[in-house]
Specification:
3 helices
Length: 99
């Protein structure tokens, strides 16, 4: 079981994450990819990273716009699992921005 982050911990984590917003219930980020295929490649890479971490985001795809939402449902809010996956999503999104 992962411990819920406090409001201060979530705020601190968000200040270190690129483009993420949220609160203790969930964090999210929207990424605009250069093309629809690039958006799908990003989603596939995030899916693989999420599977490796055994922690899965909610993903919404609208053409080139992809929104990722993270919350540890079993705990009822944001945990370190969410901020770790957010960092990984940032890395992957950064790599796709140059496509």
């Amino acid at each position: 079981m992962a411990a819920l982050l406090s409001p201060d911990e979530v705020s601190s984590a968000l200040s270190e994450l690129d483009g993420w917003t949220g609160d203790t219930t969930a964090i999210s980020r929207t990424v605009t990819a250069p093309s629809f295929p690039a958006a799908i490649r990003l989603v596939v890479e995030v899916a693989e990273a999420a599977e490796d971490a055994d922690h899965h985001p909610d993903i919404d795809i609208r053409w080139r716009t992809v929104t990722f939402a993270l919350s540890t449902h079993s705990e009822g809010g944001v945990t370190a699992k969410d901020t770790a996956l957010a960092r990984r999503i940032d890395e992957l999104a950064s790599a796709h921005s140059a496509e």
